[in-house]
Design goal:
Layout lengths: L5 H15 L7 E6 L6 H16 L5 E5 L7 H9 L5 E3 L24 H8 L2 H14 L1 E11 L1 E4 L7 H4 L4 E3 L3 H9 L5 E2 L5 H6 L5 E4 L1 H6 L8 E3 L5 E9 H6 L2 H35 L3 E3 L6 H15 L6 H10 L7
Parallel strand pairs: 1-2, 1-3, 6-7, 6-8, 9-11
Antiparallel strand pairs: 3-10, 4-10, 5-8, 5-9
Helix pairs in contact: 2-11, 7-12
């Protein structure tokens, strides 16, 4: 962005404010957080708030609003796009309806480790996804939370095979890829807003759900779930987004402060997952949850999902070329 004189910058900022009602000159920005305290979303947000205050010399600060206080995760994307919300931290699957190319990272069994997730999001492909999200959704990804694999929890029985999964009512986000993945396993899942999930589990409207250990812990799902299966079908990546209207209303110096705070928070999230996930698993077991692994190294789940969901959904996430770029970057064989 061209650096304006002080007077011109003030006039430009005032014009943006008048048109968008974005509080560009605010000293405290609002950050919507879908999850509760103790998880990777809060950790990313807290690291970002601290880094932003330091980078701006105390001029700017950020306040976290946990547990979806500022709206459902998909709603916060719309709010940020229209300039009525500053920042949001949300599961990546809740951005894909607005920016389909991001969905490449939500195809089952594409991201197979934390190292895979960091390599893709922090590299050239990650920058392309950021650019596409600005273009398609009107929001800019400035940081990434790495939350771990979405493991399956339920209140009825241990699950180690696809056959065990039959008969369970499983909540999933309103995300077509995730819905189709469960269908490939012979289950018709129940799409449901995140804000409704705990109550639905508590009232036995649904039997189970999938989310990373950090989220299960942060949302206190151990109070309403008994069994966990270590699925690896999706590695949960949770971006921190800023309203593009807000971002463009900032000075060049302020923009760089925001971006640098996002980079610092991303690295903090990486370390948080590495240090906290094992502790949280032990804590959940101590609270009475039972953890098991899928049979035969998950091969039955993998084969059904990749052979069914990849061909069906590939066009919706940018086509075979987009998927193969990710697979090639990760050192895996491209699809034919």
């Amino acid at each position: 962005m061209t650096i304006l004189s002080k007077k011109m910058r003030s006039v430009a900022a005032a014009a943006v404010l008048a048109l968008t009602a974005v509080p560009a000159l605010a000293t405290e920005f609002k950050v919507a957080v879908g999850d509760g305290a103790g998880g990777s979303q809060e950790a990313l947000g807290a690291a970002f708030a601290a880094a932003l205050a330091e980078q701006s010399g105390g001029k700017h600060s950020a306040k976290l609003f946990l547990n979806g206080q500022l709206g459902d995760e998909q709603d916060t994307v719309s709010a940020a796009a229209t300039g009525t919300l500053d920042f949001s931290i949300l599961a990546i699957n809740n951005i894909t309806p607005f920016s389909p190319e991001v969905g490449t990272l939500t195809l089952p069994y594409v991201i197979m480790s934390q190292e895979d997730a960091e390599k893709i999001t922090q590299g050239e492909i990650g920058q392309e996804l950021i650019d596409k999200t600005i273009e398609n959704a009107g929001v800019r990804i400035i940081g990434w939370a790495y939350s771990g694999f979405r493991v399956l929890s339920n209140s009825k029985k241990p699950v180690s095979t696809v056959a065990d999964l039959q008969g369970l009512v499983v909540r999933v986000p309103k995300n077509e890829i995730m819905i189709e993945t469960y269908k490939s396993w012979g289950v018709n899942p129940t799409p449901m807003a995140w804000s409704e999930t705990f109550a639905a589990l508590q009232q036995k409207v649904v039997d189970g759900q999938d989310n990373p250990y950090l989220t299960i812990y942060a949302m206190k799902f151990d109070e309403v779930q008994k069994y966990i299966t270590n699925l690896r079908y999706i590695f949960s990546i949770e971006p921190l987004i800023i309203s593009e209207q807000l971002f463009q209303s900032l000075s060049a110096e302020e923009q760089e402060q925001v971006l640098e705070a996002g980079r610092i928070a991303t690295q903090a999230s990486s370390e948080f997952l590495k240090t906290e996930e094992a502790k949280i698993k032990e804590e959940l077991v101590s609270r009475g949850m039972e953890i098991s692994d899928p049979a035969n190294d998950e091969q039955e789940f993998i084969e059904l999902a990749t052979s069914t969901v990849w061909p069906k959904m590939i066009d919706s996430v940018g086509g075979k070329e987009a998927l193969n770029r990710v697979l090639t970057e990760l050192g895996r064989d491209p699809v034919q």
